[in-house]
């Protein structure tokens, strides 16, 4: 498979509803959907005490909102609100704008990766949540709603669509995942171009058995806290 670079297909250039996406075998889709619903429901029941503890810690920390909703691009280019435990300070947007305006290195890192290794917006509790991936637990609710899958490409914002170039249609072919090939393949330790390659390979070649392997490997990666930020 050849991976082409460049913003050939972007959110601005092609309306999401007009994107032609590759189809997946019906058997895989049905098995994946049933697995998603059962796994997400079981996960939410299992981690409910942990989620309650996180909610209390966030409220005691700075009194701000417990959850953070961020608009992301989903299957077929349909926008949805991805749920997370709030890991950033309530004045985070202003802090980021000030940093990017005054720190060229940080601005270059943000433009390249859409994230910062040393993000000034993240509060102490949030840093722990990100390091342990606990901030992503609410996304199991996104799975129950049908916005996301347990395994798939990580959900992106509109500005990131151009980074996928001609492969943006591949991203839109499946539901974004709570975990995926990028999560277990290095996460923040690999560049964005390699992330795109992993996503495209997953869309075209992954089987339901691959999903199960990724889920099992995710547990190992999370416990090792490898590549988290």
Written overview of the protein:
It is a single chain. This protein has a two-stranded antiparallel ribbon with strand order 1-2. Strands 3-4 form a two-stranded parallel sheet. The chain has helices at 26-62, 92-102, 104-113, 124-132, 139-145, 168-172, 181-185, 192-205, 208-224, and strands at residues 67-73, 79-85, 149-151, 177-179. The protein has 229 residues and is mainly α. Mean pLDDT is 83; it is low at 1-19. Strand 1 and strand 2 (79-85) form a beta hairpin. The protein is built from nine helices and four strands, in the order H-E-E-H-H-H-H-E-H-E-H-H-H. The radius of gyration is 18 Å and the shape is globular. The protein is 50% helix and 9% strand. The protein starts with 25 loop residues before the first helix and ends in a 5-residue tail after the last helix.
Order of helices and strands: HEEHHHHEHEHHH
- Classify the helix fraction into a percent range: 40-55%
Global mean pLDDT = 83
Tell me about the biggest sheet?
2 strands, antiparallel
In the sheet with the most strands, the strands line up as 1-2
Number of helices: 9
Percent strand? 5-15%
Distance between the termini: 31 Å
Count of the separate structural domains: 1
Shape: globular
Low-confidence stretches: 1-19
Structural class category: mainly alpha
The gist of it:
With 229 residues, the protein is mainly alpha-helical. It is built from 9 helices and 4 strands.
């Amino acid at each position: 498979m050849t991976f082409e670079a460049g913003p050939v297909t972007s959110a601005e250039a092609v309306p999401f509803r007009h994107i032609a996406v590759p189809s997946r075998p019906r058997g895989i889709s049905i098995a994946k959907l049933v697995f998603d619903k059962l796994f997400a429901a079981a996960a939410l029941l299992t981690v409910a005490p942990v989620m309650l503890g996180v909610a209390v810690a966030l409220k005691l920390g700075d009194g701000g909102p417990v959850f953070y909703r961020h608009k992301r691009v989903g299957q077929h280019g349909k926008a949805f609100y991805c749920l997370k435990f709030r890991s950033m300070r309530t004045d985070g947007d202003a802090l980021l704008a000030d940093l990017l305006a005054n720190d060229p290195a940080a601005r270059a890192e943000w433009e390249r990766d859409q994230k910062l290794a040393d993000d000034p917006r993240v509060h102490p509790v949030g840093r722990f949540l990100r390091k342990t991936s606990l901030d992503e637990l609410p996304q199991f609710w996104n799975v129950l709603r049908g916005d996301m899958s347990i395994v798939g490409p990580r959900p992106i914002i509109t500005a990131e669509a151009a980074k996928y170039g001609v492969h943006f249609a591949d991203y839109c072919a499946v539901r974004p995942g709570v975990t995926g090939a990028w999560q277990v393949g290095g996460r923040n330790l690999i560049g964005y171009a390699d992330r795109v390659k992993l996503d495209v390979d997953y869309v075209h070649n992954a089987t339901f058995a691959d999903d199960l392997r990724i889920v099992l490997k995710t547990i190992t990666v999370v416990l090792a806290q490898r590549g988290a930020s």
